[in-house]
Design goal:
Length: 585
Amino acid sequence: MTGLIATALIACGSQPQVPEPFGEDGDASLALEHAAQDYLEQASRVEGSAKIPLLLNAADAYLLEGNPQRAAIVLTDIDLDFIDQQQLAQLHLIRAAGLAQQQQWEHALASLQFPGARQAQVARWHKTSALVQAGLGNPVAAIRDLHRCASLDESSYQLECSNQRWDALLEIEQQQLLQFNDTPQLQAWASLALILRRSSGPIEKQIQAVNTWLTQHPSLASGIPDEVVNLITAGLDIPERIALLLPLSGRLAEAGQAVLDGVLAARFDLANEGLTAPLVDIYDTASEPTDTLADQLEQGEYDLVLGPLDPVVVSELASRLNPELPMLAFNRIEQAGDSAHYGMSLAVESEAAQAARDALAHNLARALVLVQDSAYGERAASAFSATLQQSGLSSLAGLIRVNDPTALTRSLEQAFHIDQSELRRQQLQGLLGKRLEFSPRRREDIDLIFLASNAGLARQVGPTLAFVFAEDVPVLATSQVYDGQAGAEENRDLGNISFLAPNWALRQSFPLGSPTARNAELQRLEALGYDTLYLGRRLGFAQQSQAGYQGQMAQWHAQADGNFVRTMEWARINGEELSQSDWNR
C-alpha cells in the first residue's frame, strides 16, 4: 500500500506544478519567466556569487521539466567558495527534490536533513519529505508532512498537498488512520477518510456519518474533498423505482433465482432499518424478447435497471437501451462512449489479476501456474499471466493443465525437476553398481504457485507438494477451490493454500441471514444480487469513488471501461474453520 502512495505522489509531482524558485528577490514566478537554458545563459555572463541564484533557478527549472539528471549536473557546477549558508541549504533542498524524482529515497532523505534545508522553504521541504517518506515505506510520516504542507496558508503548494493528503488517507491501512490523535485537525481528516472507506450498506447511513462530522468540524467544511461532496449529492438521487431483469425460466433459472433472492434480501434489510425500500418490478429475460424488454423499460419511467445476467442479453439490451438510463448488469458490459450502463460480475479474471498483484506486492515474481484443464482454468491462467507481464518484473516458471488428480503428481514432479533428480540417481547407481541413499532435490527458482481449479483437485495439491518436497512454496488460489461442502477432514488438505473468499464467508454472515442449501456458486450469485441493490443505490457516487464499495461478496471498484471489479480477502483453513490468511495486506 505504501508503494501506491509513493507512486501517487510521484505522479502528482511530475506534473507541471509551479515551483517556488530561489531568486534573489524570492519572487515565486521567477522560474516561469525563463527556461533552464535562459538561466544558464545568464549565468555564463556573470561571475562569483552572482552566478549562484541563476544556477539554482536553472536546476529548479530542469526539475519542473522532469529532468532531474540535468538538474543534478547544474548543481555540481556551483562554486561552493561563493555560496552562502542559505543558498547551500537551498541547493540541498533542490537536490533532495531531484533525488526523490529518481526514487533515490535514502539519498534524498540525507539531503533533506542538511541544516537549514527545511527553513529554506518550509512548504516545499514538507512536500518533498512526504514523497521520500512514502517511498521509504512510512505512509504515516508522509501524511504528517503533507498535513504540515497543507496547513501553510501562504504556500502555493497548499492545494496540492491537501489533495495528496486526502488520497494518502484513503490508501493507508485502516488501523494506521488511528495514529493521528496527537494532531486534532489531522485526526479529523483521518476520521472523515475512515467514514468514506467504510463504504458499505445503505448510502443514507454513510451520509448521516458525514453530516455528523461536518457538525463536529465546521471550520473544516470549506475544505472537504470533492469525493465527500459527491457522496452527499448522491443522497439526493437514490433510485425509487427499479427494474430487475433476470432469467427465471430456462437453463439459467437457478442462477437467476439465486440473484433474485439476494436482491430481495437486501430490499428487506433496507425496510428493516427504517429506510425507504425501492419499488422493484421483476422481468423474466428468458421469456421476453430483448426488444420488448427495452420498450417496457423505456416506458416504465425507471430510475435504475438491475440486470440482465446472461452476457448475450446484456450486450443486446445495452445496445438498445437509452444510454442515459442507469443500468447495472450482473455481468461484464462492453461500454462504448459516454453511457450510464455498468457491469459487475463473478468472472475469474478479477481473482486471477488480484492474485498476480498480491504476489508482486510480496516480491514473488516467478510463478508456476496450475489450472484445471477447462475454459475456467484457461481464463484464469491468461489473466494471471497478463497481469504479471504488465509489471515487467516477472516471468512464468511453467504452466500445468490437469483434470485428473492422478496426473497431478507426475506433472508436479516434472515442474519441480524431481524426475530429473531421480534420473541422475539411477545413472549414478548404474555407474557405481550399488544402491545409494538418496533425497531428491527440487528446483529452487519457483516463488509461488497460482492455482485455479475445483475443490476436488485443489485438495490434492497440498499433499502432492509435500511429496515433491515443495510444501514450503506458497500457493494462491481462486475462490472455487473451497466449496464449503466437504467435511473437516477433507478440507484439512487445503491447509497450506491461501484462497480468495467472499466477505460473508469470512464473517459468517450470509446475506439472507442464515445458511442455505445452495452450493457455493449459487451462494456467490446470491451475494452478488445483494451487493448490486446497495451498489445501484449509490451508482453515480460509486463509479467515481476512490474508496469503492464494501459489499457482502467483495470490495467493488469502478474501472474506466464501465465495469466494477472485485477485490476479495485471502482465507485459509485453520483447523476446521475458515479464517483470514496472512496474505491480506
